[in-house]
Amino acid sequence: MRDIYFKGFIVIIQALIVGIIIFVSVPIVRHFAEQKSKPYLIRDSVSFQDSVLNFIFDLRLEHPYIVFAQAKEESGNWTSVVWLENNNMFGMKMPERRATLAIGIKRGYAVYKDWRDCLIDYAFFQSAYMRNLSEDEYVKKLASSYAENEAYERNLKLHKKLIKQNGKQ
Question: Using CA of residue 93, residue 160, residue 84, residue 26, what is the dihedral sign?
């Protein structure tokens, strides 16, 4: 008789443990599901922008503040569809003659596994076409060959000035 009570007690304890695990894990799973459905909340954060700028410096890209300003300009301040869907912060097309980390094309633009691959691919672009230029030459060349906007050169310089003055706004 005692064994029956003991086994019943064990079953109740196990049920309580399972209930506690479910009670604790449901809010955690719900939190991560919400974060996955809103990637732009993470991608436009200050810490994300710090990571981008730090990675630009780690890659030793020429004119890092201009490159960061270009990423902000081309990605619509981290809101464009090409950025959100393709991990393409520069609006780059699939290259025909240089090395690339692009894994496909979507909406006419290169698709990358993640934002780091996009920056590495930009380093390939810079190495192939934009080496040894002064900052003014660099911006002028971007404006004349890359940009779809007449105010591109002015916008990049303005972004750069704001970044250096106030951080990565």
Answer: positive
